[in-house]
Amino acid sequence: xxxxxxxxxxxxxxxxxxxILATEFAPALFGExxxxxxxxxxxAKDRWDVVVLDLAMPGRNGLEALKQIKxxxxxxxxxxxxxxxxxxxxxxxxxxxxxxxxxxxxAPEELVSAIRKIMRGGVYISSAVADELVIHARSHxxxxxxxxLSDREYQVLCLIASGREVKEIGTELAxxxxxxxxYRTRLLEKMAMKSSAExxxxxxxxxxx
Length: 209
Known about the structure:
This protein is α/β, with parallel strands linked by helices. The protein has helices spanning 11-24, 36-45, 62-72, 86-95, 108-119, 127-137, 151-161, 166-173, 177-190, 196-205, and strands spanning 2-7, 28-33, 50-53, 78-82, 100-103, 124-125.
């Protein structure tokens, strides 16, 4: 019996995933978690075959949750299922140890195929993700500025560009306002910009938000 842990803060999404996967992997046992702490609790008390993890969650975001679960359970395969386009997070999640990256707009059949491949010990990447990996493997000289940012810097950039205030960003990322301001200063230095408005313009122009 396959055991699948679904991690998403929306109950409707979890229910939909369960309906799709229960049909294809019967009999199957499902666990559910709405945030990173619940996911880690579930991972500690039971053995799962695969985790399906959303990137956008309250509190600790999915990228940090991925790193934590891979640190504590390195052999547990994690499939990232996110509404973020592949060019934003796919490479970062694969590098962090994800066994696959799938956009939520993908067909249910692709989700099933991804889990089947992961269960066989493989890594599932769509053609879009494959393109991103190829681009990333090439020389970094021609890469856009945001490709050189750390994961945390990239997160702060996207939140600033989304119109979030420093305090709001701190709450979402579990950081102090002072730390967020430090990341903002670092962003401006790395990207040779002078204001949040310039960062926002850059992010919007490149479809990061």
